[in-house]
Task: structure prediction
Amino acid sequence: MRIDLHTHSSASDGTDTPAELVLGAAAAGLDVIALTDHDTVRGHAEAIAALPEGLTLVTGAELSCRVDGVSLHMLAYLFDPDEPELARERELVRDDRVPRARTMVGKLQALGVPIEWEQVARIAGDGSVGRPHIATALVELGVIETVSDAFTPEWLANGGRAYTQKHELDPFDAIRLVKAAGGVTVFAHPLAVKRGEVVPESSIARFAAAGLDGIEVDHMDHDEPTRARLRGLARELGLLTTGSSDYHGSRKTVGLGEYTTDPEIYGEITRRATGAFPVPGAGGPSPA
Result:
């Protein structure tokens, strides 16, 4: 089995629609894909409707969190999307995205970048606006060459010149809320230092004590020594280890299924979940 447990669609900051995402996953030879858009489950219905036979969808979300001044992302799998407290927190984060993005646009303008809000809004479309949309605008303007180039201290990285903080969950609250909704939590790319400051390993141990299920190890932003370090930490703390592409369509160079999760780990995630269950393809449109 080939299992990719971290992808994004145009419901947040990916370039593929949810339908295109699942068809692309089938074409890439995946057996299981998780749709984990930022702080939203809006793309799930479309993905399920288009799910081709032979592909299973894991519903999820990537929750924006902050602890001790450091931003981090918590992957949440197979939770009840209608659980009211978790739904309310996701809405608070989403509602803060537009004013936050407008503030970042203003900071870029003050730095001399000829960016306009209308350009960012066009790029975001119906998705939850975020830094990748602003980064795409910078590429369009010729300020930088790639989207990844925006995530530096010079521009949009955490603490960067144009960075603006948004409403974010306390990760301990996120773990508690996801568990109360029957879901499973995995700390996304925990040591991706190229993205900015990361939490210390002592914080990961605190998350584990609070009920964290796993950490994402095999990820494009972790080099081999970092992956080895994380595997050792996971063994010490009794955490599951996952691998995922963190696919965003054309906004990143990584492809679907470039990093994958061991089937036994996937089986354990599904065993722990009680809020929702993986959705098997019912013979939707065939991949091109």
